[in-house]
Amino acid sequence: MKELQRKADLLGISLSNEKCDQFLRYYDFLVEKNKVMNLTGITEKNQVIDKHFIDSIALASRMDLSGELHVLDVGTGAGFPGIPLKIVFPDLKMTLLDSLNKRIKFLDEVIELLDLKDITTIHGRAEDYAKKGKLRGQFDICVSRAVANLSSLSEYCIPYLKKGGCFISYKSGNIEEEVEHAKYAITVLGAKLEKVDEFIIPETDITRTFVMIKKTKETPNKYPRKAGLPSKDPL
User: Fold this and answer.
1) DSSP 119
2) Nearest by Cα to 175 from 159, 191, 157, 151
3) Quick one: which H or E segment has residue 73?
4) Minimal CA–CA distance to 142: which of 163, 107, 118, 166?
5) What distance in Å separates the CA atoms of residue 228 and residue 138, rounded to the nearest whole number?
6) Within its chain, how far is the Cα of 99 from the centroid?
7) Cα(158)–Cα(152) distance, rounded to whole angstroms?
8) Helix, strand, or coil (residue 5)
9) Sheet holding 93-98, edge to edge
10) Under a CB-based contact definition with an 8 Å cutoff, are residues 192 and 214 in contact?
11) What is the pLDDT of residues 185-196, one digit of tens each?
12) How do residues 117-129 score in pLDDT, each as one tens digit?
């Protein structure tokens, strides 16, 4: 994991040997479990470092993640970006949400293996837990690397934020048109587009983009719509 440590340094992120050891155990367990369940198509160590670990924690080079911030990772899958962010910033109060129970069971094992504290997993759909009386309006930051268009992701994620909170969508490829199409949804949901921040993963030709969206007022109660609609009929 010296390669991970070195590349994190290039982003201005310092990783102790203890944290690198946690990443190594995470990697080994991910590859082991991936033999019997579909967690990731990327298993070669350097590829995992670049495309999962560094990609996940690069957000720390763009915003302050210190302190006891409440963070939600929507559609976390195998734990990206939530688990890497939690390793680097143990004070984060992290919640991982995914619709597939077998992935949640995997994440529970990762949390125990790495002895992570103040981290919760939830099995369910994003539309359901964003309703009033559940997790709506409880988070400072919502992140997602889920593969969905930005309009749909905004409807899934913005309702979870406190006023003043930030939704960060991890994106790749050319997203100008996608961002343009999402502007209406972002406004309707009570937020504004703050920044589209493109970066290159150190010593690669891999380009990533953070779309940063700030919640400015309460999201109307009718959003998110019932399960399935945000993806079938984006705002």
Assistant:
1) E
2) 151
3) strand 70-74
4) 166
5) 23
6) 14
7) 10
8) helix
9) 119-123, 93-98, 70-74, 139-144, 161-172, 207-215, 191-200
10) yes
11) 999 999 999 999
12) 999 999 999 999 9
pTM for the whole structure: 0.96
Greatest pairwise CA separation for the chain in angstroms: 48
Beta-carbon contacts of residue 228 (< 8 Å; ≥ 6 apart):
127
Amino acid at 193: L
Tokens standing for residue 176: 């100008």
Question: Can you tell me the distance from the alpha carbon of 50 to that of 218, in angstroms, rounded to the nearest whole number?
Answer: 37
Q: pLDDT per residue over 132-166, tens digit each?
A: 889 999 999 999 998 789 999 999 999 999 999 99
Judge whether 85 and 59 are in contact, CB under 8 Å.
yes
Q: Which helix (H) or strand (E) holds 218?
A: none
Amino acid symbol at 106: F
- Return the closest-CA partner of residue 50 out of 166, 137, 172: 172
For 6-37, write each residue's pLDDT tens digit: 999 999 999 999 999 999 999 999 999 999 99
- Distance set, CA 53 to CA 73, 78, 174 (Å): 15, 12, 22
